[in-house]
């Protein structure tokens, strides 16, 4: 699972991401990619599920670029605990994603296989997404 090795603060305030992405709006590495159409959070498990799906399609030929990283901790209090007594312990990590950000890029597959792989990836994500293609392809 993806998670940071060190963080400045263990517990974060989770504010809903508003606006459009400031970076990673265009394909830089691969020929095909998947782009978000809305803002939200993507957990480390969802990123890993997408990575496994893409690697199954690639079968040791081609390359994947993951353009997001889960660096925000999400805390959770134990079940059946009374209110108060501070913030809960970190439960999992998530990535903040704004509208218009490229999440994954890939190359080394044909157009049909790439579109099929990215369609399968979009089913694993909690946000609406769109498949983007480099213009030279």
Structure notes:
This protein is 20% helix and 28% strand. With 137 residues, the chain is an alpha+beta fold. The protein has a domain at 32-77 and 88-133: Aldehyde Oxidoreductase, domain 3, CATH 3.90.1170. The strands form two sheets. It has a four-stranded antiparallel beta sheet, with helices on one face. Strands 2-5-4 form a three-stranded antiparallel beta sheet. The protein is elongated. The two termini are 32 Å apart.
Spans of at least 5 consecutive residues whose pLDDT stays below 50 are: none
Q: Could you give the order of the helices and strands?
A: EEHEEEEHE
Secondary structure class reads: alpha+beta
Distance between the termini: 32 Å
The CATH homologous superfamily of the domain at 32-77 and 88-133 is named Ribosomal protein L16/L10
Name the strands of the widest sheet in spatial order. Answer: 3-6-1-7
What name does the CATH topology of the domain at 32-77 and 88-133 carry? Aldehyde Oxidoreductase, domain 3
Helix content estimate: 10-25%
Binned strand content:
25-35%
> What is the CATH architecture descriptor of the domain at 32-77 and 88-133?
Alpha-Beta Complex
Mean of all residue-level pLDDT scores: 93
Overall geometry: elongated
Please report the first level of CATH classification, the CATH class of the domain at 32-77 and 88-133.
Alpha Beta
Query: How many β strands by DSSP?
Result: 7
Keywords:
single chain; alpha+beta; Aldehyde Oxidoreductase, domain 3; 4-stranded antiparallel β-sheet; 3-stranded antiparallel β-sheet; 28% strand
State the gist of this model.
This protein has helices at residues 44-58, 111-123, and strands at 32-36, 40-43, 63-66, 72-76, 89-97, 102-107, 129-133. It is an alpha+beta fold and 137 residues long.
